[in-house]
């Protein structure tokens, strides 16, 4: 998983949206797929930008805004509501 995140950091260097997609693979609410040692290894590797370091630190802290934002990406949107909105605006 550490190697996966290193590759993700390189691929998403200037792309916050893509970086959050990588983060969602390791964070789902209070469930974190990396140990603290692995997080520390990533932070100290030199492969992450400052933005990536900060968001990684916050993402693995349950209850933070970043943690919630990343976790929400793991849940599907309520498509009936989206379909209804599209129908109302003549796009469905």
List keywords for this structure.
92 residues, mainly alpha, two-stranded antiparallel ribbon, 61% helix, elongated
How would you portray this structure in words?
By secondary structure, this protein is mainly alpha-helical. It is built from 6 helices and 2 strands; from the N terminus they run ααββαααα. The chain has helices at residues 2-11, 16-24, 36-44, 50-59, 65-72, 79-88; strands at residues 27-28, 31-32. β1 and β2 form a beta hairpin. α1 (2-11) runs antiparallel to α2. The termini are far apart.
How many β strands by DSSP?
Answer: 2
Strand content: under 5%
Spatial separation of the terminal alpha carbons: 40 Å
Q: Over all CA atoms, what is the radius of gyration?
A: 16 Å
The proportion of residues forming helix, as a percent range, comes to 55-70%
* Largest pleated sheet: 2 strands, antiparallel
Specify the number of helices. Answer: 6
The strand line-up of the biggest sheet is 1-2
SSE string: HHEEHHHH
**Domain unit count:** 1
Q: Could you name the ranges where pLDDT drops below 50 across 5 or more consecutive residues?
A: none
| Gross geometry | elongated
Mean pLDDT: 88
Query: Which structural class do the helices and strands define?
Result: mainly alpha
Briefly summarize what is shown.
The protein has helices at residues 2-11, 16-24, 36-44, 50-59, 65-72, 79-88; strands spanning 27-28, 31-32. With 92 residues, the protein is mainly α. The chain has one domain (2-88).
């Amino acid at each position: 998983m550490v190697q996966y995140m290193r590759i993700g950091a390189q691929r998403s260097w200037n792309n916050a949206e893509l970086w959050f997609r990588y983060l969602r693979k390791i964070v789902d609410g209070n469930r974190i797929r990396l140990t603290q040692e692995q997080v520390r290894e990533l932070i100290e590797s030199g492969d992450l930008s400052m933005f990536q370091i900060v968001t990684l630190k916050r993402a693995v802290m349950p209850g933070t805004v970043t943690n919630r934002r990343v976790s929400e990406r793991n849940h599907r949107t309520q498509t009936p509501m989206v379909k209804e909105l599209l129908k109302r605006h003549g796009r469905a």
